[in-house]
């Protein structure tokens, strides 16, 4: 269904917005909310691929681009290679915030409400090789989607967890940046999502605000000294936005942070007076910005806030995970040509890679939270032969394997998990690439080429002629 199929907005919502906006502005706002939304993507800077010429840049994020129309992403092999993320433009403002804060790249970041992973992929880009991100999602099925998206993004700097915010309590003072992109009443998504309009009610706004308070109450002490908490919603009402600034600053010591804006962007700054000073919020209204509705605000912990420094554990006791021994590390480094900065863990027989610097943080997280994924799952040895995973194929780790560049047709066959007819001279594992980006593994066994694309990820839709 498109937004035009159901042009009605809830009456009480209209009244609420009419009290937030001036009368002449309100009609522009309503018209924008009932018009089709833009499509935008954020490119993966570590998997560069050519962009078509007819894109327009997102003003506040140099990796973001508007597309002239919405393509069928499913049929674009680069989408499956993790070359870009389809992300609504307003959300990309977090990149501008991080750049302005000069938040430490070698920091530990938490995205508390992370699925499907748009903002996590942005945080992962920002910290790159140096930092580590915990991308958490409380709903199990959504945590699986988050995991898949972070694997495709391929940076190997993320731990995906499936926990309630209350489970983070033992980790107070551990994080440099915490993002709470809270579940909300979704008013800013009305033009994209008709269901959001149908589910909206003043009672639901109240329920959402109560849930946001609970989440902030459980999260407010997680950033360490001079750490940041970024709170965002995709809704317009005061209860879920400015009232949360008041709540957080009543419960926890925080300092205000002001983010510079270019007036051409059309973003509205709001001021909320509290006992601790004036705090700033940033509102994205669809009639003023090229993007969906969003509210975002930034808080800074004082320098005397509680800090937690994990100690290196003598033993790492976990029901599923094990550290690797010297011989295993040596074997993996030799086989995969990975450098000394990479450390490894073992889950059953499969090996995972993680930057060694983060090992003591990871072990604390793994013994506190329900970890669904971390770093990059590399593969296992079977009778001395290394069997690589798909995750390794699409990761940015160096790969010491032969490559074969696929045509668009061959890439589609591969992604549908069809039988492949390719002219390949090398035997064994071969990395199939499209526009030089890895799509996954194939294996040449002489009379046949085996397709190792993950069954659960295969394209099921019929390709158009
Ligand atoms: C706005 S969405 C997150 C979008 C995501 N940050 C992104 O950019 O792709 C909010 C998320 O919060 C999760 N959620 C729902 N109830 C929650 C709760 N009580 N505590 C924490 N997260 C919750 C939802 O499942 C949803 O994935």
Automatic annotation (TrEMBL):
Keywords: Cytoplasm, Methyltransferase, RNA-binding, S-adenosyl-L-methionine, Transferase. PANTHER family: 28S RRNA (CYTOSINE(4447)-C(5))-METHYLTRANSFERASE-RELATED, NOP2 YEAST -RELATED NOL1/NOP2/FMU SUN DOMAIN-CONTAINING. CDD domains: AdoMet_MTases. Belongs to the class I-like SAM-binding methyltransferase superfamily. RsmB/NOP family. The active site is at 234 (nucleophile). Pfam families: Methyltr_RsmB-F (PF01189), Methyltr_RsmF_N (PF17125), Methyltranf_PUA (PF13636). GO terms for biological process: RNA methylation. It comes from Echinicola vietnamensis (strain DSM 17526 / LMG 23754 / KMM 6221). This is tRNA/rRNA cytosine-C5-methylase. The keyword Lyase does not apply. Residues 17-302 form the SAM-dependent MTase RsmB/NOP-type domain. One of its GO terms (molecular function) is RNA methyltransferase activity. It comes from the Bacteria. S-adenosyl-L-methionine binds at residues 113-119, 137, 164, 181.
């Amino acid at each position: 269904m498109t937004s035009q199929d159901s042009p009605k907005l809830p009456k009480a919502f209209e009244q609420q917005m009419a009290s937030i906006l001036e009368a002449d502005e309100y009609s522009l706002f309503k018209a924008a909310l009932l018009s089709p939304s833009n499509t935008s993507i954020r490119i993966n800077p570590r998997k560069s691929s050519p962009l078509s010429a007819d894109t327009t840049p997102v003003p506040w994020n140099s990796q973001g681009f508007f597309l002239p129309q919405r393509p069928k992403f499913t049929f674009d092999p680069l989408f499956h290679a993790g070359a870009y993320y389809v992300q609504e433009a307003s959300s990309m403002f977090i990149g501008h915030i991080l750049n302005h804060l000069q938040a430490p790249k070698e920091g530990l970041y938490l995205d508390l409400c992370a699925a499907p992973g748009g903002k996590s992929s942005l945080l992962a880009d920002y910290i790159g090789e140096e930092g580590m991100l915990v991308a958490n999602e409380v709903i199990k099925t959504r945590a699986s989607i988050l995991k898949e998206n972070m694997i495709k993004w391929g940076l190997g700097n993320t731990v995906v967890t499936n926990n309630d915010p209350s489970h983070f309590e033992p980790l107070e003072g551990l994080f440099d940046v915490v993002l709470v992109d809270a579940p909300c009443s979704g008013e800013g998504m009305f033009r994209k999502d008709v269901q959001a309009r149908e589910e909206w009610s003043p009672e639901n706004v109240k329920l959402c605000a109560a849930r946001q308070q609970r989440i902030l109450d459980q999260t407010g002490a997680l950033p360490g000294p001079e750490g940041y908490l970024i709170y965002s919603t995709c809704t317009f009402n005061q209860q879920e936005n400015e009232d949360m600034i008041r709540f957080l600053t009543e419960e926890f010591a925080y300092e205000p942070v002001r983010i510079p804006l270019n007036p051409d962007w059309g973003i509205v700054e709001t001021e909320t007076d509290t006992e601790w000073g004036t705090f700033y919020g940033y509102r994205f209204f669809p009639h003023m910005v090229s993007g969906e509705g969003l509210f975002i605000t930034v808080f800074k912990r004082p320098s005397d806030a509680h800090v937690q420094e994990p100690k290196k554990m003598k033993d790492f006791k976990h029901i599923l995970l094990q550290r690797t021994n010297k011989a295993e590390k040596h074997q993996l480094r030799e086989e995969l040509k990975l450098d000394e900065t990479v450390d490894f863990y073992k889950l059953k027989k499969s090996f995972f890679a993680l930057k060694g610097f983060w090992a003591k943080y990871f072990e604390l997280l793994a013994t506190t939270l329900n970890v669904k994924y971390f770093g990059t799952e590399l593969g296992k040895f079977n009778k001395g032969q290394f069997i690589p995973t798909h995750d390794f194929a699409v990761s940015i780790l160096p790969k010491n394997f032969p490559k074969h560049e696929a045509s668009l047709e061959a890439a589609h066959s591969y992604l549908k998990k069809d039988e492949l007819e390719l002219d390949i001279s090398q035997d064994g594992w071969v990395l199939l690439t499209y526009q030089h980006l890895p799509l996954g593994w194939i294996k040449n066994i002489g009379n046949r080429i085996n397709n190792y694309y993950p069954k659960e990820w295969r394209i099921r839709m019929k390709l158009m002629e």
